[in-house]
Amino acid sequence: MTGSSRAAAARCSHPALGRPAPTLAELRARSDADARAAWDGALALARWREREEARLLSSWDALHDAPCEEVSPRPGATQGVRAIELARALAALFPGCLEGLAVDRFGPRWRARIERARDDVDLDDGVARADRGALAYAWGRRWAWLDRGGAIGLETLLRSVPERVLWALAREDPRARDGLITRGEAYAALCDRLAARGGLGGRVPSVWMARDDVALDERVPGHALVGPPGAGKRALLGQLARRFPGRGVNVDNFHGGGAPDPRYRARPETSYAALSPGLVCAWSAAHRLEPALVEYAVEMAQDTGARFHLVIAATPARWAELVARAPALAALRVIELAAPRDDELLARWICQRPQLEDRVGARLDLAWSLAQLDRLATIAAPAELLRVWLRELGLTSRALYEPGALTRHGLEPALPGARVPRRRLAASRARARLLRGRPWLEPLIPDDAQLDALRELDAAISGDGLRRW
Questions:
Q1: What is the pLDDT of residues 386-399, one digit of tens each?
Q2: What is the 3-state secondary structure (H, E, C) of the chain?
Q3: For 144-171, b where at least 16 C-beta lie within 10 A, e where not — what string?
Q4: What span, in angstroms and rounded, lies between the C-alpha atoms of 6 and 192?
Q5: pLDDT value for 1
Q6: Contact 89, 45 (CB under 8 A)
Q7: Among the four residues 1, 4, 313, 351, which has the most C-beta atoms within 10 Å?
Protein backbone atom coordinates (compact mmCIF):
# COMPACT_ATOMS: atom_id res chain seq x y z
CA MET A 1 0.00 0.00 0.00
CA THR A 2 1.02 3.60 -0.22
CA GLY A 3 1.68 6.04 2.57
CA SER A 4 -0.93 6.48 5.27
CA SER A 5 -3.36 3.96 3.76
CA ARG A 6 -0.87 1.12 4.33
CA ALA A 7 -0.18 2.29 7.89
CA ALA A 8 -3.91 2.54 8.70
CA ALA A 9 -4.74 -0.85 7.20
CA ALA A 10 -2.01 -2.43 9.28
CA ARG A 11 -4.18 -1.91 12.37
CA CYS A 12 -7.43 -3.52 11.24
CA SER A 13 -9.20 -5.53 13.93
CA HIS A 14 -12.41 -7.52 14.36
CA PRO A 15 -13.40 -10.45 16.61
CA ALA A 16 -13.76 -12.76 13.59
CA LEU A 17 -10.69 -11.56 11.68
CA GLY A 18 -8.52 -14.56 10.75
CA ARG A 19 -10.81 -16.87 12.69
CA PRO A 20 -12.35 -19.80 10.77
CA ALA A 21 -16.10 -20.29 11.02
CA PRO A 22 -17.07 -23.21 13.29
CA THR A 23 -18.70 -26.28 11.77
CA LEU A 24 -22.17 -27.47 12.68
CA ALA A 25 -20.72 -30.62 14.25
CA GLU A 26 -18.40 -28.53 16.47
CA LEU A 27 -21.25 -26.34 17.66
CA ARG A 28 -23.57 -29.28 18.22
CA ALA A 29 -20.95 -31.05 20.35
CA ARG A 30 -21.07 -28.12 22.82
CA SER A 31 -24.85 -27.84 22.81
CA ASP A 32 -27.26 -28.97 25.50
CA ALA A 33 -30.06 -31.43 24.72
CA ASP A 34 -32.55 -28.77 23.57
CA ALA A 35 -30.00 -27.03 21.35
CA ARG A 36 -28.95 -30.38 19.81
CA ALA A 37 -32.59 -31.09 18.96
CA ALA A 38 -32.83 -27.67 17.30
CA TRP A 39 -29.64 -28.31 15.28
CA ASP A 40 -30.98 -31.67 14.12
CA GLY A 41 -34.27 -30.04 13.15
CA ALA A 42 -32.45 -27.35 11.16
CA LEU A 43 -30.36 -29.94 9.33
CA ALA A 44 -33.49 -31.97 8.60
CA LEU A 45 -35.17 -28.90 7.09
CA ALA A 46 -32.06 -28.16 5.03
CA ARG A 47 -32.06 -31.67 3.61
CA TRP A 48 -35.80 -31.43 2.91
CA ARG A 49 -35.12 -28.22 0.95
CA GLU A 50 -32.32 -29.89 -1.02
CA ARG A 51 -34.58 -32.83 -1.94
CA GLU A 52 -37.35 -30.48 -3.03
CA GLU A 53 -34.95 -28.51 -5.23
CA ALA A 54 -33.72 -31.76 -6.79
CA ARG A 55 -37.32 -32.94 -7.33
CA LEU A 56 -38.27 -29.70 -9.08
CA LEU A 57 -35.28 -29.97 -11.42
CA SER A 58 -36.17 -33.58 -12.18
CA SER A 59 -39.76 -32.58 -12.95
CA TRP A 60 -38.52 -29.90 -15.33
CA ASP A 61 -36.33 -32.40 -17.17
CA ALA A 62 -39.27 -34.80 -17.50
CA LEU A 63 -41.52 -32.14 -19.05
CA HIS A 64 -39.06 -30.39 -21.37
CA ASP A 65 -36.90 -31.52 -24.25
CA ALA A 66 -33.85 -29.64 -22.98
CA PRO A 67 -32.56 -30.06 -19.43
CA CYS A 68 -33.02 -27.18 -17.03
CA GLU A 69 -30.07 -24.82 -17.04
CA GLU A 70 -28.35 -24.37 -13.73
CA VAL A 71 -30.09 -21.62 -11.78
CA SER A 72 -27.85 -18.61 -11.19
CA PRO A 73 -27.28 -18.23 -7.44
CA ARG A 74 -27.46 -15.04 -5.44
CA PRO A 75 -24.21 -13.05 -5.44
CA GLY A 76 -21.72 -15.07 -3.43
CA ALA A 77 -24.37 -17.56 -2.31
CA THR A 78 -23.06 -20.72 -0.66
CA GLN A 79 -24.59 -24.05 0.27
CA GLY A 80 -25.22 -25.31 3.77
CA VAL A 81 -27.67 -25.11 6.65
CA ARG A 82 -29.17 -21.63 6.79
CA ALA A 83 -30.23 -19.46 9.70
CA ILE A 84 -33.86 -19.46 8.53
CA GLU A 85 -33.91 -23.24 8.92
CA LEU A 86 -32.72 -22.98 12.52
CA ALA A 87 -35.40 -20.34 13.19
CA ARG A 88 -38.06 -22.64 11.74
CA ALA A 89 -36.78 -25.56 13.81
CA LEU A 90 -36.93 -23.43 16.96
CA ALA A 91 -40.48 -22.30 16.10
CA ALA A 92 -41.57 -25.88 15.43
CA LEU A 93 -39.88 -27.62 18.37
CA PHE A 94 -39.67 -24.83 20.98
CA PRO A 95 -42.48 -22.35 20.25
CA GLY A 96 -41.94 -20.65 23.62
CA CYS A 97 -38.64 -19.24 22.26
CA LEU A 98 -40.59 -17.01 19.88
CA GLU A 99 -43.32 -15.82 22.19
CA GLY A 100 -45.79 -13.44 20.57
CA LEU A 101 -45.61 -15.02 17.11
CA ALA A 102 -48.33 -17.15 15.57
CA VAL A 103 -46.10 -20.22 15.37
CA ASP A 104 -49.12 -22.51 15.59
CA ARG A 105 -49.96 -21.40 12.05
CA PHE A 106 -46.83 -22.90 10.47
CA GLY A 107 -45.14 -24.90 13.27
CA PRO A 108 -47.01 -28.17 12.60
CA ARG A 109 -45.99 -28.11 8.92
CA TRP A 110 -42.32 -27.67 9.82
CA ARG A 111 -42.52 -30.35 12.51
CA ALA A 112 -43.90 -32.76 9.92
CA ARG A 113 -41.05 -31.97 7.54
CA ILE A 114 -38.53 -32.50 10.34
CA GLU A 115 -40.05 -35.88 11.17
CA ARG A 116 -39.99 -37.00 7.53
CA ALA A 117 -36.31 -36.03 7.19
CA ARG A 118 -35.14 -37.11 10.64
CA ASP A 119 -33.83 -40.46 9.40
CA ASP A 120 -31.30 -38.60 7.23
CA VAL A 121 -29.88 -36.62 10.16
CA ASP A 122 -26.99 -38.30 11.91
CA LEU A 123 -24.37 -36.08 13.47
CA ASP A 124 -23.64 -38.35 16.42
CA ASP A 125 -20.96 -40.12 14.40
CA GLY A 126 -19.04 -36.81 14.56
CA VAL A 127 -18.98 -36.37 10.79
CA ALA A 128 -21.69 -34.77 8.68
CA ARG A 129 -21.90 -36.51 5.32
CA ALA A 130 -20.42 -34.50 2.41
CA ASP A 131 -20.92 -30.81 3.10
CA ARG A 132 -24.56 -31.00 4.12
CA GLY A 133 -23.69 -30.45 7.75
CA ALA A 134 -21.90 -27.19 7.04
CA LEU A 135 -23.31 -23.79 7.91
CA ALA A 136 -24.10 -21.41 5.07
CA TYR A 137 -21.16 -19.05 4.64
CA ALA A 138 -22.60 -15.78 6.02
CA TRP A 139 -24.19 -17.54 9.00
CA GLY A 140 -20.92 -19.30 9.75
CA ARG A 141 -19.13 -15.94 9.75
CA ARG A 142 -21.72 -14.62 12.18
CA TRP A 143 -20.89 -17.53 14.48
CA ALA A 144 -17.18 -16.69 14.16
CA TRP A 145 -18.01 -13.21 15.48
CA LEU A 146 -20.55 -14.31 18.08
CA ASP A 147 -19.14 -17.53 19.50
CA ARG A 148 -16.74 -17.30 22.43
CA GLY A 149 -16.73 -20.95 23.42
CA GLY A 150 -18.61 -22.59 26.24
CA ALA A 151 -21.95 -24.36 26.37
CA ILE A 152 -24.63 -23.56 23.81
CA GLY A 153 -28.31 -23.34 24.78
CA LEU A 154 -31.44 -22.04 23.12
CA GLU A 155 -30.58 -18.42 23.97
CA THR A 156 -27.24 -18.77 22.18
CA LEU A 157 -29.02 -20.17 19.15
CA LEU A 158 -31.43 -17.25 19.17
CA ARG A 159 -28.51 -14.80 19.27
CA SER A 160 -27.15 -16.42 16.12
CA VAL A 161 -30.29 -15.53 14.14
CA PRO A 162 -29.40 -12.53 11.92
CA GLU A 163 -31.51 -9.44 11.36
CA ARG A 164 -32.84 -10.53 7.96
CA VAL A 165 -34.36 -13.68 9.52
CA LEU A 166 -35.86 -11.73 12.44
CA TRP A 167 -37.63 -9.49 9.91
CA ALA A 168 -39.11 -12.62 8.29
CA LEU A 169 -40.25 -13.98 11.66
CA ALA A 170 -41.77 -10.62 12.66
CA ARG A 171 -44.31 -11.00 9.85
CA GLU A 172 -45.92 -13.72 11.95
CA ASP A 173 -46.91 -11.29 14.70
CA PRO A 174 -50.74 -11.55 14.75
CA ARG A 175 -51.06 -7.80 15.30
CA ALA A 176 -49.06 -7.11 12.14
CA ARG A 177 -51.10 -9.62 10.16
CA ASP A 178 -54.30 -7.91 11.32
CA GLY A 179 -52.96 -4.46 10.40
CA LEU A 180 -52.89 -3.24 14.01
CA ILE A 181 -49.16 -2.48 13.96
CA THR A 182 -46.61 -1.95 11.20
CA ARG A 183 -44.04 -4.53 10.18
CA GLY A 184 -41.34 -2.33 11.72
CA GLU A 185 -43.20 -2.21 15.03
CA ALA A 186 -43.58 -5.99 14.95
CA TYR A 187 -39.85 -6.35 14.35
CA ALA A 188 -39.05 -3.96 17.23
CA ALA A 189 -41.40 -5.87 19.56
CA LEU A 190 -39.74 -9.18 18.66
CA CYS A 191 -36.29 -7.71 19.29
CA ASP A 192 -37.43 -6.35 22.67
CA ARG A 193 -38.70 -9.78 23.71
CA LEU A 194 -35.52 -11.53 22.58
CA ALA A 195 -33.30 -8.94 24.28
CA ALA A 196 -35.20 -9.39 27.56
CA ARG A 197 -34.26 -13.08 27.62
CA GLY A 198 -30.71 -12.60 26.33
CA GLY A 199 -31.45 -13.96 22.88
CA LEU A 200 -30.66 -10.95 20.69
CA GLY A 201 -27.23 -11.00 19.07
CA GLY A 202 -27.35 -7.69 17.23
CA ARG A 203 -25.59 -6.78 14.01
CA VAL A 204 -22.13 -7.96 13.07
CA PRO A 205 -19.92 -4.84 13.02
CA SER A 206 -17.55 -3.82 10.25
CA VAL A 207 -13.83 -4.32 10.57
CA TRP A 208 -12.33 -1.54 12.66
CA MET A 209 -9.61 0.39 10.83
CA ALA A 210 -7.42 2.65 12.96
CA ARG A 211 -7.02 6.24 11.76
CA ASP A 212 -4.05 8.36 12.71
CA ASP A 213 -5.83 11.54 11.60
CA VAL A 214 -8.54 11.33 14.30
CA ALA A 215 -7.82 11.71 18.01
CA LEU A 216 -10.76 12.18 20.39
CA ASP A 217 -10.05 13.84 23.73
CA GLU A 218 -12.59 13.29 26.52
CA ARG A 219 -11.19 16.34 28.36
CA VAL A 220 -12.94 18.68 25.91
CA PRO A 221 -16.75 19.10 25.85
CA GLY A 222 -17.12 17.33 22.55
CA HIS A 223 -16.10 16.99 18.92
CA ALA A 224 -17.50 17.86 15.53
CA LEU A 225 -16.51 15.40 12.80
CA VAL A 226 -16.77 17.54 9.68
CA GLY A 227 -16.16 16.15 6.21
CA PRO A 228 -17.75 15.34 2.87
CA PRO A 229 -19.94 12.26 2.34
CA GLY A 230 -17.85 9.12 2.41
CA ALA A 231 -15.14 10.59 4.66
CA GLY A 232 -15.81 7.96 7.36
CA LYS A 233 -17.89 9.97 9.84
CA ARG A 234 -20.41 7.22 10.52
CA ALA A 235 -17.64 4.64 10.86
CA LEU A 236 -16.02 6.78 13.56
CA LEU A 237 -19.34 7.09 15.40
CA GLY A 238 -19.52 3.31 15.43
CA GLN A 239 -16.10 3.19 17.11
CA LEU A 240 -16.95 5.48 20.03
CA ALA A 241 -17.31 2.60 22.48
CA ARG A 242 -13.75 1.55 21.62
CA ARG A 243 -12.44 5.11 21.89
CA PHE A 244 -14.24 5.79 25.20
CA PRO A 245 -13.87 2.48 27.09
CA GLY A 246 -16.10 2.04 30.10
CA ARG A 247 -18.47 4.83 29.04
CA GLY A 248 -22.08 4.49 27.97
CA VAL A 249 -22.43 5.42 24.29
CA ASN A 250 -25.62 6.48 22.51
CA VAL A 251 -25.51 7.00 18.76
CA ASP A 252 -28.66 8.65 17.36
CA ASN A 253 -30.69 7.38 20.31
CA PHE A 254 -33.99 9.25 20.55
CA HIS A 255 -35.77 6.97 22.99
CA GLY A 256 -36.22 8.11 26.55
CA GLY A 257 -35.36 11.70 27.31
CA GLY A 258 -37.70 13.58 29.63
CA ALA A 259 -37.78 16.93 31.36
CA PRO A 260 -34.63 19.08 30.90
CA ASP A 261 -32.33 19.54 33.88
CA PRO A 262 -33.16 22.91 35.48
CA ARG A 263 -29.46 23.59 36.12
CA TYR A 264 -28.89 24.50 32.46
CA ARG A 265 -29.94 27.75 30.82
CA ALA A 266 -30.83 26.22 27.46
CA ARG A 267 -34.34 24.91 28.00
CA PRO A 268 -36.03 22.92 25.24
CA GLU A 269 -39.64 22.10 26.01
CA THR A 270 -38.72 18.43 26.27
CA SER A 271 -35.58 16.36 25.82
CA TYR A 272 -36.63 13.70 23.32
CA ALA A 273 -33.03 12.49 23.02
CA ALA A 274 -31.32 10.23 25.54
CA LEU A 275 -29.17 12.82 27.31
CA SER A 276 -27.88 12.07 30.78
CA PRO A 277 -24.66 12.58 32.78
CA GLY A 278 -21.85 10.14 32.08
CA LEU A 279 -22.86 9.40 28.49
CA VAL A 280 -21.07 9.86 25.21
CA CYS A 281 -23.83 11.09 22.90
CA ALA A 282 -23.43 11.17 19.10
CA TRP A 283 -25.70 12.64 16.44
CA SER A 284 -25.35 12.17 12.68
CA ALA A 285 -28.29 14.45 11.78
CA ALA A 286 -28.17 17.25 14.35
CA HIS A 287 -29.46 19.72 11.73
CA ARG A 288 -32.88 18.11 12.11
CA LEU A 289 -33.03 18.77 15.84
CA GLU A 290 -34.47 21.73 17.70
CA PRO A 291 -31.67 24.32 18.21
CA ALA A 292 -32.58 24.63 21.91
CA LEU A 293 -32.02 20.89 22.36
CA VAL A 294 -28.60 21.11 20.66
CA GLU A 295 -27.55 24.01 22.89
CA TYR A 296 -28.85 22.14 25.94
CA ALA A 297 -26.58 19.19 25.03
CA VAL A 298 -23.60 21.51 24.55
CA GLU A 299 -24.21 23.15 27.91
CA MET A 300 -24.34 19.76 29.62
CA ALA A 301 -21.10 18.80 27.83
CA GLN A 302 -19.41 21.93 29.22
CA ASP A 303 -20.42 20.96 32.77
CA THR A 304 -17.36 19.03 33.95
CA GLY A 305 -19.37 17.45 36.75
CA ALA A 306 -21.80 15.86 34.27
CA ARG A 307 -18.99 14.01 32.44
CA PHE A 308 -21.12 14.19 29.31
CA HIS A 309 -19.47 14.18 25.88
CA LEU A 310 -21.14 15.29 22.65
CA VAL A 311 -20.03 14.19 19.17
CA ILE A 312 -21.66 15.56 16.04
CA ALA A 313 -21.00 14.36 12.48
CA ALA A 314 -21.81 16.75 9.63
CA THR A 315 -20.80 17.86 6.18
CA PRO A 316 -19.11 21.29 6.00
CA ALA A 317 -22.34 22.92 4.77
CA ARG A 318 -24.44 21.30 7.51
CA TRP A 319 -21.89 22.28 10.15
CA ALA A 320 -22.00 25.92 9.09
CA GLU A 321 -25.79 25.77 9.23
CA LEU A 322 -25.71 24.19 12.70
CA VAL A 323 -23.34 26.79 14.15
CA ALA A 324 -25.49 29.57 12.74
CA ARG A 325 -28.60 28.12 14.39
CA ALA A 326 -26.94 27.04 17.66
CA PRO A 327 -23.85 29.22 18.31
CA ALA A 328 -22.98 27.24 21.45
CA LEU A 329 -21.62 24.51 19.14
CA ALA A 330 -18.49 26.64 18.73
CA ALA A 331 -17.36 25.05 22.02
CA LEU A 332 -16.81 21.71 20.30
CA ARG A 333 -13.44 20.78 18.86
CA VAL A 334 -13.68 20.49 15.08
CA ILE A 335 -11.94 17.56 13.37
CA GLU A 336 -11.86 17.93 9.60
CA LEU A 337 -12.01 14.67 7.66
CA ALA A 338 -11.01 14.39 4.02
CA ALA A 339 -12.65 12.19 1.44
CA PRO A 340 -10.68 8.96 0.92
CA ARG A 341 -8.09 8.85 -1.84
CA ASP A 342 -8.55 6.38 -4.68
CA ASP A 343 -5.90 4.03 -3.27
CA GLU A 344 -7.78 3.86 0.07
CA LEU A 345 -11.20 2.96 -1.33
CA LEU A 346 -10.91 -0.81 -1.71
CA ALA A 347 -9.47 -1.32 1.78
CA ARG A 348 -12.30 0.72 3.30
CA TRP A 349 -14.89 -1.14 1.26
CA ILE A 350 -13.54 -4.58 2.19
CA CYS A 351 -13.77 -3.58 5.86
CA GLN A 352 -17.57 -3.35 5.44
CA ARG A 353 -17.83 -7.01 4.46
CA PRO A 354 -18.74 -8.54 7.86
CA GLN A 355 -21.81 -6.37 8.40
CA LEU A 356 -22.92 -6.48 4.75
CA GLU A 357 -22.58 -10.26 4.52
CA ASP A 358 -24.54 -10.67 7.75
CA ARG A 359 -27.36 -8.53 6.39
CA VAL A 360 -27.41 -10.01 2.88
CA GLY A 361 -26.56 -13.63 3.68
CA ALA A 362 -23.98 -13.99 0.91
CA ARG A 363 -20.25 -13.84 0.37
CA LEU A 364 -19.20 -10.40 -0.95
CA ASP A 365 -15.45 -10.82 -1.10
CA LEU A 366 -12.77 -8.99 -3.07
CA ALA A 367 -13.36 -11.16 -6.14
CA TRP A 368 -17.09 -10.36 -6.09
CA SER A 369 -16.48 -6.63 -5.63
CA LEU A 370 -13.98 -6.47 -8.49
CA ALA A 371 -16.44 -8.33 -10.72
CA GLN A 372 -19.11 -5.70 -10.08
CA LEU A 373 -16.70 -2.84 -10.72
CA ASP A 374 -15.54 -4.52 -13.92
CA ARG A 375 -19.12 -4.90 -15.12
CA LEU A 376 -20.08 -1.31 -14.27
CA ALA A 377 -16.86 0.33 -15.51
CA THR A 378 -18.53 1.31 -18.78
CA ILE A 379 -21.29 3.12 -16.87
CA ALA A 380 -19.30 5.04 -14.25
CA ALA A 381 -15.76 5.31 -12.98
CA PRO A 382 -15.21 2.45 -10.48
CA ALA A 383 -13.58 4.83 -7.99
CA GLU A 384 -16.74 6.94 -8.00
CA LEU A 385 -18.89 3.83 -7.66
CA LEU A 386 -16.94 2.83 -4.55
CA ARG A 387 -17.47 6.31 -3.12
CA VAL A 388 -21.22 5.97 -3.75
CA TRP A 389 -21.29 2.55 -2.10
CA LEU A 390 -19.40 3.79 0.96
CA ARG A 391 -21.57 6.90 1.19
CA GLU A 392 -24.80 4.92 0.91
CA LEU A 393 -23.66 2.57 3.64
CA GLY A 394 -22.83 5.52 5.89
CA LEU A 395 -25.93 7.61 5.32
CA THR A 396 -28.52 4.93 6.00
CA SER A 397 -28.98 2.11 8.48
CA ARG A 398 -29.71 -0.29 5.63
CA ALA A 399 -27.16 -2.28 3.68
CA LEU A 400 -26.40 -1.26 0.13
CA TYR A 401 -27.51 -4.67 -1.10
CA GLU A 402 -31.01 -4.79 0.36
CA PRO A 403 -33.95 -5.11 -2.06
CA GLY A 404 -34.38 -1.88 -3.99
CA ALA A 405 -30.82 -0.73 -3.38
CA LEU A 406 -29.53 -3.39 -5.80
CA THR A 407 -31.45 -1.94 -8.72
CA ARG A 408 -30.87 1.65 -7.67
CA HIS A 409 -27.10 1.17 -7.93
CA GLY A 410 -27.13 -1.06 -11.00
CA LEU A 411 -26.36 -4.30 -9.15
CA GLU A 412 -28.27 -7.42 -10.15
CA PRO A 413 -28.94 -10.47 -7.94
CA ALA A 414 -27.00 -12.84 -10.24
CA LEU A 415 -23.56 -11.61 -11.24
CA PRO A 416 -20.44 -13.28 -12.63
CA GLY A 417 -17.52 -14.00 -10.37
CA ALA A 418 -14.06 -12.58 -10.86
CA ARG A 419 -10.82 -14.44 -10.37
CA VAL A 420 -8.36 -12.88 -7.97
CA PRO A 421 -4.97 -14.52 -8.55
CA ARG A 422 -3.99 -16.81 -5.71
CA ARG A 423 -1.18 -16.02 -3.30
CA ARG A 424 1.14 -18.55 -4.94
CA LEU A 425 1.56 -16.13 -7.85
CA ALA A 426 4.18 -13.44 -7.38
CA ALA A 427 2.51 -10.15 -6.46
CA SER A 428 3.74 -8.44 -9.64
CA ARG A 429 2.32 -11.25 -11.84
CA ALA A 430 -0.96 -11.23 -9.93
CA ARG A 431 -1.41 -7.49 -10.31
CA ALA A 432 -0.43 -7.60 -13.99
CA ARG A 433 -3.11 -10.22 -14.60
CA LEU A 434 -5.73 -8.16 -12.78
CA LEU A 435 -4.83 -4.96 -14.65
CA ARG A 436 -5.06 -6.64 -18.04
CA GLY A 437 -8.00 -4.91 -19.75
CA ARG A 438 -8.83 -2.98 -16.58
CA PRO A 439 -7.08 0.41 -16.72
CA TRP A 440 -9.52 1.70 -14.11
CA LEU A 441 -7.89 -0.59 -11.52
CA GLU A 442 -4.51 1.18 -11.64
CA PRO A 443 -5.45 4.08 -9.26
CA LEU A 444 -7.28 1.71 -6.90
CA ILE A 445 -4.35 -0.73 -6.59
CA PRO A 446 -1.29 1.37 -7.47
CA ASP A 447 1.38 -1.13 -6.41
CA ASP A 448 2.05 -4.80 -5.74
CA ALA A 449 2.23 -4.39 -1.97
CA GLN A 450 -1.29 -3.03 -1.84
CA LEU A 451 -2.74 -6.00 -3.75
CA ASP A 452 -0.91 -8.33 -1.38
CA ALA A 453 -2.33 -6.51 1.64
CA LEU A 454 -5.87 -6.46 0.21
CA ARG A 455 -5.74 -10.21 -0.37
CA GLU A 456 -4.52 -10.75 3.18
CA LEU A 457 -7.37 -8.71 4.65
CA ASP A 458 -9.94 -10.34 2.37
CA ALA A 459 -8.79 -13.83 3.37
CA ALA A 460 -8.78 -12.91 7.05
CA ILE A 461 -12.35 -11.60 6.89
CA SER A 462 -13.44 -14.80 5.14
CA GLY A 463 -11.71 -16.91 7.78
CA ASP A 464 -9.63 -18.48 5.01
CA GLY A 465 -6.26 -17.14 6.07
CA LEU A 466 -4.21 -15.72 8.90
CA ARG A 467 -4.13 -12.04 9.68
CA ARG A 468 -0.64 -10.91 8.77
CA TRP A 469 -0.98 -7.14 8.47
A1: 888 887 764 333 44
A2: CCHHHHHHHCCEECCCCCCCCCCHHHHHHCECHHHHHHHHHHHHHHHHHHHHHHHHHHHHHHHCCCCCCCCCCCCCCCCCECHHHHHHHHHHHCHHHHCCCCHHHCHHHHHHHHHHHHHHCCCCCCCCCCCCCCECHHHHHHHHHHCCCCCECHHHHHHCCCHHHHHHHHCCCHHHHCCCCCHHHHHHHHHHHHHHCCCCCCCCCCCEECCCCCCCCCCCCEEEEECCCCCCHHHHHCCHHHHCCCCEEEECCCCCCECCCCCCCCCCCCECCCCCCCEEEEECCHHHCCHHHHHHHHHHHHCCCCCCEEEEEECHHHHHHHHHHCHHHHHCEEEECCCCCHHHHHHHHHCCHHHHHHHHCCCCCHHHHHHHHHHHCCCCCHHHHHHHHHHHHHHCCCCCCCCCHHHHCCCCCCCCCCCCCCCCCCHHHHHHHHHCCCHHHCCCCCCHHHHHHHHHHHHHHHCCCCCCC
A3: bbbbeeeebbbebbbbbbbbbbbeebbe
A4: 42
A5: 39
A6: yes
A7: 313
Check residue 393 and give its pLDDT. Answer: 64
Per-residue pLDDT, averaged over 307-317, amounts to: 95
- How far is Cα 353 from Cα 393, in angstroms, rounded to an integer? 11
Taking Cα atoms as reference points, which of 397, 387, 460, 374 lies closest to residue 18? 460
Q: How far apart are CA 373 and CA 349, in angstroms?
A: 12
Report residue 306: phi and psi, to 5°: -75, -25
Average pLDDT, rounded, for the chain: 81
- Provide mean pLDDT across the span 323-343: 93
pLDDT of residue 125: 45
- Round to whole Å and give the CA distance between 65 and 72: 20
Higher local confidence (pLDDT), 408 or 144: 144
